[in-house]
Amino acid sequence: MFRKDCPQCGNSSFSAAGSGATWICPYCGLELIKEPLKNTDGSPVKFNDLDPVEKNNRKYD
After folding, report:
1. Centroid of chain to Cα 57
2. What's the Cα-to-Cα distance from 51 to each of 7, 21, 24, 41, 61, rounded to whole Å?
3. pLDDT greater than 60 at residue 50
4. Closest residue by Cα to residue 17 from 4, 1, 41, 38
5. In sequence order, what are the residues at sequence separation of 6 or more whose Cβ sits closer than 8 angstroms to the Cβ of residue 8?
6. In whole angstroms, what is the distance from residue 26 CA to residue 17 CA?
């Protein structure tokens, strides 16, 4: 899961997808696509980080 914080209303929005064409705040409707992507705990997502659940489900050969 990923999170973005809305600068307009101050609420957090969560999504299982870390990327996409749009990310709309479900509380006030502001477009959040340019806001920084965070982990659910609020820590910043580093480039190429995988979601912890995705890491655990990933199979390595």
Report:
1. 19
2. 24, 19, 20, 12, 20
3. no
4. 1
5. 25, 28, 30
6. 15
Which tokens go with 56? 């655990």
pLDDT more than 70, % of the chain: 75
- pLDDT tens column, 19-46: 778 999 999 999 999 999 999 999 998 8
Q: How many C-beta atoms lie closer than 10 Å to residue 3's C-beta? A: 19
Contacts with 61 (C-beta within 8 Å, 6 or more apart), sequence order: none
Ramachandran angles phi, psi of 8, nearest 5°: -85, -50
At 39 the pLDDT is: 93
**What DSSP character marks residue 54?**
H
DSSP string, 9-28: T--EEEES-S--S--B-TTT
